[in-house]
Amino acid sequence: MKTRILLGIFAVTCLLLGCKTSFPVPQQSGKEDMAYLVFVGPLKTYGNGSKPVQVDIDGTTFDAKVVKPKVANRKGYQYGVATGKRNITVKFNGNTVYQKQLFLSSQETKIITLP
User: Fold this and answer.
1) Which pTM was predicted?
2) Residue 17 has pLDDT above 80, yes or no
């Protein structure tokens, strides 16, 4: 009789402890006022990041790697930029391949598709 009562208490205790499956996790957040750019283009033209493009954002220039569209979401290189209206010009081998004024909001990832 005592063993049944002890087994019952043990079973109820295990059930109650099993209900708590996750513990509190501190909230994580990214950089507040940052937007991200990913450059996507054909593998024949840009290679898989081996042939960088030159990106000019409001007078600030940097080199960026281009990935093919299928891997853009998983393995794309993200470049952080300030939010707001931005004039973006992308050049490859001295030729302008993309030029546009974009509005980038906080924590937005903008995929720029190059021809």
Assistant:
1) 0.66
2) no
Burial (0-12, 13-18, 19+ Cβ within 10 Å), 81: buried
Q: Which residues touch 36 (CB under 8 Å, ≥6 apart)? A: 78, 79, 80, 81, 108, 109, 110
Decide if pLDDT at 85 tops 90. yes
Element holding 99 (H helix, E strand): strand 95-104
Buried b (16+ CB within 10 A) or exposed e, 63-74: ebbbbbeeebee
Q: What does the alpha-carbon distance between residue 81 and residue 53 come to, in Å, rounded to a whole number? A: 16
Q: Which residues pair with 64 in a beta bridge?
A: 53
The residue among 29 and 27 whose pLDDT is bigger is 29
Provide the token pair at 63.
């080199």
